[in-house]
Amino acid sequence: MRRRFLGALAAGALVAALGACGGGDEASGGKTEVVFSYLWAGEEAAALEKIVADFNASQDKITVKGVSSPDFQKQLTSMSGAQGSFDISDHFGSGVGAWASKGILTPLDDFIKADGYDTKDFPAAAMSQMVYQGKTYSMPIALHTQMLLYNKKLYAEAGLAGPPKTTEEWAEQIAKLTKRGADGTITQLGYANAEINTSFTTLGFMFGGSWDDQSGAATPANPGNVAGLNFYTDNIPGKYGVEQVRKFTSGFGEYASAQNAFYTGKAATIIDGEWQPVSIKKFAPTLEWGVAPLPYPSAQPNLTGTTQVTTSTLFIPRNAKHPKEAWEFMKYLLAKDAMTKFSLALGNLPARTSLVDDPQYKALPQFDAWLGALKSANARSLASSPWAAQYSSDLALAFDDIAQQRKAPNDGLAGVAQKAKSYAP
Predict the structure, then answer these.
(1) Which residue among 34, 228, 273, 346 has its CA within the 20 to 30 Å range from the CA of 294?
(2) Which of 351, 363, 315, 329 lies closest to 144, judged by CA?
(3) CB 66 within 8 A of CB 95
(4) Residues 6+ apart with CB under 8 A from 391
(5) How far apart are CA 121 and CA 85, in angstroms?
(6) For the segment 145-191, what is each residue's pLDDT rounded down to a tens digit?
(7) Contact criterion met (CB below 8 Å) for 203 and 167
């Protein structure tokens, strides 16, 4: 499931490549054929093809050929050649800097200037990932924010009235929501990571941390990041024993299935994205659940509304045969009507702030919580940089060491900071 991978990709884990498709030049009737290679598949691809058909029917100069192609290496090969096999594709905001630095993306600034295209409707946290060395190389088609999900039935059983506002309250709730047998075996966890890279980077933001500075340099050992990871270790493995936690979480079912640990009640709270209303409806329709803003440290009320924003983006490769026509199609996808259809079909957030209050999103249960997070002054995102993939990989290793208590958060993140000194500028 593509949506599943967004949090990890926000850290740049798959920056190395994309997928490819067959090419085309001129369609029948004298129309220019634009090849749209996209990573989505299944139901998501079907929804996207409807939008492609709408575009083709809306004008008589361009025919878009959509191809579902999640083969990363083939697409990278195509983008690296003299002439590519596709004109427009999608990726993640974390990969923009890496590709732009390799010279394989077309800058969009001339198109934007020529059309007087207004980018102010796109959140700053998203647009910051689209720019590399002052030029815009991509545009966001969908956004993703992180919120706290909680199991209402388990809360009622624990005598808890509702979700926490502060991290101190959350710590108390985690303890009340965690159950163990007489031998110490865990049978229910008050909190479990949905995906460790996304969960841990979000915890850092929640405690006022930052994973990079304004210049884009990596700052893994930021005190807020350390505090966020200390919160996890203090309240989960440090409290219940890393071996017991490992044993319990090893029995979690697949994320995109009815056996998801949150759906089955094994995890009482998780931090996760806006696709959950659609997934819960599909896999756990009887689940009694709620969503709330991420808690903040009581001493830092200025961090109210903190969330991590990640992006799904559109780009034109440098070797595209028809970049101008690809830009016309990109504008269509980014327009309000197509963006609404697309995001609703995928259960993702629209990339335009003007759509946040659109009543069409009311059909998705509790979706407004994630939508509202887009307007938060504390919406944060990871930098898109040439070294994003290496940084993500180094963080993943450190996060595992920290979760397994092989290293304390301070030591684990200090190790990443040492490695970051060698990242290419």
Answers:
(1) 346
(2) 351
(3) no
(4) 11, 12, 218, 220, 385, 416, 420, 423
(5) 32
(6) 999 999 999 999 999 999 999 999 999 999 999 999 999 999 999 99
(7) no
